[in-house]
Amino acid sequence: MSDIDSILKESRVFPPPPAFAANAHVGSLDAYRAMYQRSLGDPEAFWAEQAETLQWFRKWDRVLEWKAPFARWFDGGTLNVSVNCLDRHVVTWRRNKAALIWEGEPGDVRTLTYRQLLDEVCRCANALKAMGVGKGDRVGIYLPMVPEAAVAMLACARIGATHSVVFGGFSAEALRDRMNDATAKAVITADGGYRRGSVVPLKANVDAALEGVPSVTGVLVVRRTGSAVAMRDGRDHWWHETVDAASPDCPAEPVEAEHPLFILYTSGTTGKPKGVVHTTAGYLLGSALTTRYVFDLKDDDTYWCTADIGWVTGHSYVVYGPLANGATALMYEGAPNHPQPDRFWSLIERHRVTIFYTAPTAIRAFVRWGDEWPAKHDLASLRLLGTVGEPINPEAWMWYRRVIGGDRCPIVDTWWQTETGAIMITPLPGATPTKPGSGTLPFFGVSPEVVDQKGHPAPPGAGGYLVINKPWPSMLRTVWGDPDRYVEQYWKRFPGIYFPGDGARRDEDGYFWIMGRVDDVINVAGHRLGTMEVESALVSHALVAEAAVVGRPDDLKGQALVAFVTVQAGEKPDEALRAQLKEHVVHEIGAIARPDDIRFTDALPKTRSGKIMRRLLRDIAAGKQTVGDTTTLEDYSVLARLREDEE
Ligand code: WTA
Prior knowledge:
about 650 residues; alpha/beta
């Protein structure tokens, strides 16, 4: 693959508002630079100093052991994440401070103070213990965005169990594969969840999934919707019976710094989902420190990150980062356009939200829905905006700043990944002048670079590969059960250096501009989808012979999914099959992977070595190449041969 062309030109600069800077944790670019230099000059001293902000049962013996690419941070130390998120606040004035303010899609509101949240976490932890779950066991969490989701995660952490949250929009099959890969012992779910007014049948999906998961012996079920569900004797337990009846006292298990806190599955380029493993101390430190500095978090903030807990953003910036800082976090269950497209703005107005963190895909939808929706609400409580998940196009950034931020709020465009655990490239809102579309500068202790194909530094302005050349505490430690894949996936492209898989360029000011994935993983509505997973789902249909999936630029979702499909010999593809295949993918993976377009073809274009020519397919999908009738059968093999001659 050649280096990446850089086409975006953007010259607007927005310095931090002086009043914001005056009260910020980091109030000037000089202050940022001084701390950044120190963090890279002697990383171990820097991280040791920062680790003092956590509560430990036993302090570490050694800050970092780096046997590339395997890191151990704070070895010898023991701690517990739930103690850091709860117990240490409960002994201060924060005991009666709201930890979570939650609003359900139907409009019900619940507030849990730090004291109440700790009690609930302890009860849940005791209920899990009674189900035979203990330190080192894996627990699946398949819940809607209800407070019990945060409680369940913290309860696992409290007893040293490793959680694996599976997004509630994923299908039974996706859940089954993940639970098997993790050999989970228990699953925590709900009778259902609300989404755009209808009920998602989570428990029914769990029942179907568990037919093929022998390791799971217990299921804990939250009653959310009141829908009728089947409860299996001996395996299934109602939360409102077992958790409510359990004791609110549960001593926290001291775990080693490197004890796995969670596994989070993310799509890879091969069909099998990758279980990204995060451990305890380094992850907690990374999520806590970034939350404090990037969001300039203060005790009187009402902070709202709109991510679902099924994604890493929900882990780091709904649950662990905010709670570790003793913050008040808002959590919302449902869709942004239910009952109307102003639901988010209504939430901000009613709960006086001060910090708002969402995804570019959501912002593009807001733009499309129209300015009249935010205009109905008083958004003056907001003081800071953030984005994450994909590159934000400058015009969407400008709209966000003007319409939501009232031209007053700084915007932090935060680049990071499931694998990095915490924000890596980002402005600090009181310090960094921002440019629309740029993630700007690295966070403390993070050492990114843009390199060419050979790993040499790319000149300013030139597109290349983003790499990170020093280990950091919240980095992933391995791929669950597959250390070879960890090495292969992240450390082989540029030996010994972390390759996130993104393209980027760095401008004259040293600002980073992320250009998206360089491989063929597709980012749909802020979610990374491996093409292989979607292809495997298509091929699992009896009439499909072969499939290749690529992304096509889409104004709303970032990328739309286009599937090129060849059918079994003798079969005639038609509209009915097209509709059937879309539903089939939804069934296999979930609605998020529904192909926007299915194009039937005689044959897929392939290289001589048999690799599908995705680049050609991407061009065709984007309309840059066409061949004849695109509604029925197409033959790209001629085009492929022509293209091969060019190369
Ligand atoms: C993309 C989400 C540009 C990027 C936290 C990355 C971004 C992938 C940004 C990770 C951003 C995330 N600007 N691109 N601010 N944030 N990305 O694992 O391609 O779901 O590698 O983690 O999203 O997606 P993931």
